[in-house]
Design goal:
Elements: H1 5-11, H2 14-35, H3 49-52, H4 56-76, H5 80-84, H6 86-103, E1 114-116, E2 119-121, H7 123-139, H8 149-168, H9 172-176, H10 181-187, H11 192-210, H12 213-230, H13 232-235, H14 239-263, H15 266-276, H16 287-298, H17 310-313, H18 325-357, H19 362-386, H20 404-422
Antiparallel strand pairs: 1-2
């Protein structure tokens, strides 16, 4: 390294590291609570190593220990390696996704886990940081605001390839996370029209599931007709474009049924139906969300207390130490504890944006915004699905949910960013 260890240590963003450590610690406490059994001894007392390894809370300690080693390695490695080998990381992860697709054993209908002896790893988790590095490297060499369509097509292809492979392995939730990259692209000059069009398309697709098709088409036609009448002089010159937009919207409305019935898996259709109508399948697909909301609501203002959650104790919520860890927070720590966790996430996100903005290279800034966007997407969707505001798509709460792949993935994302940031004053503006 080009600077002394002491100077490098001072350059690290210890505020972010402190927030990370606090969140990992709180996450472990809640994993312990979620996997705690009233009949089992507390902590390590009277248990063999084999018995301890049957507990998620003990395995999470091991994952946290390996994450500490990993973070040290990440900040010690020359920060230029992340730029230089960005495409290599990307190629390796794409290869892992392909291997997983063909050789992985189906688990809960998904081929997304590689089993290496007793260890299971999910390559989809690592595809996030590899894709973030690759697109940041690519965008460092172009001006997205003024670039030609070929470069934009390459960027779109780099972003879409991993999620397409992930979808092929039937892991839709992890694939959706890659939509978060649009926020980073918007910061680097992508036209806001793209975000507006995508948001409008999402609203239309949701409305097509909620109200009769003909009513929706009639309403859209009236809106476009009203715009045409108000701006008739301008719109007369854009009539072909307006008719094309109308035709595309009508096609989307009628295409919803095909997508819903022919593309989505049965369990995915059920999850959307339950989101629209929570009482549609209360004892089936809707069970998780219903019990999660009961757990969170029963916590009240201050919560029932650590290890005192009845919903948690008696395993009413499946996957409570992973995807539904937030309902443990709500039940045992109450509204106040939930607010503390949300404030911690908001503090982390604000810090990530701050760190991204102070980078002197396009590569560093773009990567920083990719990291912030991924954390935000996971946080918003995970909390949303535990309280019934988002469909259950099976993505973890960063640094809180149990799982080695998840913890490693977010640790790698964050500490590559901190390693780049520590040397930001040595970067040449690209």
């Amino acid at each position: 390294m080009s600077s002394s260890p002491a100077r490098y240590s001072r350059s690290l963003d210890w505020v972010t590291i402190g927030i990370y450590a606090l969140m990992v610690g709180l996450g472990w406490l809640n994993v312990y609570a979620a996997s705690y059994s009233p009949d089992a001894p507390l902590g390590f007392a009277g248990q063999s190593f084999q018995e301890l390894m049957a507990n998620n809370w003990f395995k999470q300690i091991i994952w946290i220990g390996t994450a500490v080693v990993l973070m040290v390695i990440l900040v010690v490695v020359d920060y230029k390696a992340y730029d230089t080998f960005a495409y290599v990381f990307y190629a390796v992860v794409v290869l892992l996704l392909l291997v997983t697709l063909f050789i992985a054993r189906p688990i809960a209908g998904s081929r997304s886990w590689l089993e290496l002896g007793p260890v299971r790893l999910q390559p989809a988790e690592f595809a996030k940081f590899a894709t973030a590095l690759a697109v940041s490297r690519f965008m460092a060499g172009i001006n997205l605001r003024h670039q030609n369509w070929r470069d934009q097509a390459v960027l779109a292809g780099m972003t879409l390839l991993p999620p397409l492979l992930i979808i092929a392995s039937n892991e839709t939730g992890q694939a959706l996370v890659f939509g978060a990259f649009l926020l980073a692209y918007f910061r680097e000059g992508m036209s806001p029209l793209i975000l507006i069009v995508l948001a409008a398309a999402g609203v239309i697709l949701i409305l097509a599931l909620l109200i009769p098709k003909l009513w929706l088409i009639g309403g859209i036609t009236l809106i476009l007709g009203g715009v045409f009448l108000v701006n008739s002089r301008v719109m007369r010159h854009h009539l072909p474009l307006a008719l094309s937009v109308w035709a595309v919207v009508v096609g989307m409305v009628f295409g919803v049924d095909f997508f819903f019935n022919q593309v989505l898996q049965p369990h995915q259709r059920k999850r959307i139906e339950v989101l629209i109508n929570p009482s549609a399948d209360p004892l089936g697909v809707g069970w998780n969300v219903t019990q999660s909301k009961i757990a969170i609501g029963s916590g009240g203002l201050m919560g029932k207390g650590f290890l005192e959650g009845t919903q948690t104790k008696f395993d009413f919520v499946p996957e409570q130490s992973t995807d539904f860890i937030f309902c443990t927070v709500g039940e045992e720590w109450g509204w106040m504890g939930s607010i503390v966790v949300i404030i911690l996430f908001m503090a982390l996100l604000m810090r990530l944006v701050y760190v991204a903005e102070r980078q002197k290279s396009v590569f560093g800034r773009t990567y920083g915004y990719c990291v912030a966007s991924i954390f935000f997407f996971h946080f918003a969707v995970n909390v949303g699905m535990t309280i019934g505001l988002a469909p259950v798509v099976g993505i973890p709460l960063p640094l809180f949910s149990y799982g080695g792949s998840s913890l490693w993935s977010f640790t790698i994302l964050l500490f590559i960013m901190l390693a780049i940031d520590a040397y930001r004053k040595q970067d040449l503006v690209r």
